[in-house]
Amino acid sequence: MKKRIVLLLIIVSFVLGITAHNISFAEKADKEVQQKQKVDDLYKELELFSDAVSIIRADYVEEKKSKDLIYGALKGMLASLDPYSQFMDPDTYNEMKVETGGEFGGIGIEITLKDDLLTIISPIDDTPAYKAGLKAGDKIVKIDGAIIKDITLIEAVKKLRGKPGTDVNIIVLREADKKLLEFTITRAIIKIASIKKAEILEPGIGYIRLAEFQENTPKDLSEALKKLEAENLKGLLLDLRNNPGGLLDVAVEVGGKFIQEGKVVVSTKGRVETQNIEFKSRNKNNHHLDYPIVVLINGGSASASEIVAGALQDYKRAILLGTKSFGKGSVQTVVPMSDGSAVRLTTSKYYTPKGRSIHGEGIMPDILVEYEERPMKDKEVDKEAALLEKLLEGKEKTPEEKTEEKKKKELDNQLLRAVDVLKGIIIYSGK
């Protein structure tokens, strides 16, 4: 009886093995058929493309170079993928390399294509665009009288750039005001400093304005933190408003300054396995973990600034205050081509430590506070009140008192609210 059972089990195992092998073989064969079908389809489409090129070269009213036709096709193909993927001819690629050098002639704005409209992510602090009054979210309608339609980002950048001292005329749609606004802006050499301000606003309350994520940002930030911590820092305000982003590795290093070593700051996910990467904090002996933080964000906070804000929010290391961030969370890889041109391709997307997608979603603040423009009459009232106070007191204030008063008057409503939140946390925590 036992021999029969053993024999039966052997037969069943053998049959199952043959079946499994057949299924595996069938799946493999099916995959090979599908792959061959894809290759055949690709060749058919390439044949279609070749026919179109031949027809244009033979019958178009003017003679066209093959290179121009190929470049045009590549531009259209990359532009059809998403607003950030682009084909760059050699001149355009060189323009991009100039931009990443950190100094160039222009007006000082970060732009993107959003809903097929050329949109300002943010004006860069202390640049001609910032001083002229351009704002995050403004839609560019015209540049130098030409209507902007079906324009690529690189083409728009080339139009906005120019020799320092020359003017560019821009018409924007500001949806909040429901009107078109015209600006004539004089181009200048744009020098971007990553840390705009690092100061003590009130006893124990430190403030850092981080404008962009560049190669020198981690070093500059460390120096700013060291300076504030030497002045008895009890709580930090990290201002990332209108920060358009920058380098990924810099964002990881900045975020890692405020969280424990080995924690994921951001991850990238793409279609290829090598694009699925976790970027972790590498800061050993991190001593920036002892005080509470409030991070300010708005619609001009994008990319790297969203990575930092999202990580600090996920780990409950900071409270986010302001308005929803821009939502630019995709990774572009630039691949140089043999003739000096390049392909800029979106290869993956950013995710916060808890797996939240940044791209198209943005980061929502914990405390929603809309920015309020201060009317000029309020500023005049401040001046009159200061003058009256001086007359009544009959004495001049000390330089320290004047500096403290000036700082308070420069704070906008979001920053004032952030100071109050930070004070509350400090009091509650007993620090």
Overview of this protein structure:
With 431 residues, this protein is an alpha+beta fold. Among the domains are: 103-191, PDZ domain (Pdz3 Domain, Roll), CATH 2.30.42; 195-368, 2-enoyl-CoA Hydratase, Chain A, domain 1 (Alpha-Beta Complex). It has helices at residues 2-59, 66-79, 90-99, 128-132, 153-160, 217-229, 248-256, 304-314, 376-393, 399-410, 413-429, and strands at 86-88, 103-106, 109-114, 117-123, 139-143, 146-147, 167-174, 179-186, 188-191, 195-202, 205-210, 235-239, 264-270, 277-280, 293-297, 318-322, 330-336, 342-351, 367-368. It has a 6-stranded mixed β-sheet, sandwiched between helices. Strand 5 (139-143) and strand 6 form a beta hairpin.
Layout of strands and helices, then pairs:
Blueprint: H1 2-59, H2 66-79, E1 86-88, H3 90-99, E2 103-106, E3 109-114, E4 117-123, H4 128-132, E5 139-143, E6 146-147, H5 153-160, E7 167-174, E8 179-186, E9 188-191, E10 195-202, E11 205-210, H6 217-229, E12 235-239, H7 248-256, E13 264-270, E14 277-280, E15 293-297, H8 304-314, E16 318-322, E17 330-336, E18 342-351, E19 367-368, H9 376-393, H10 399-410, H11 413-429
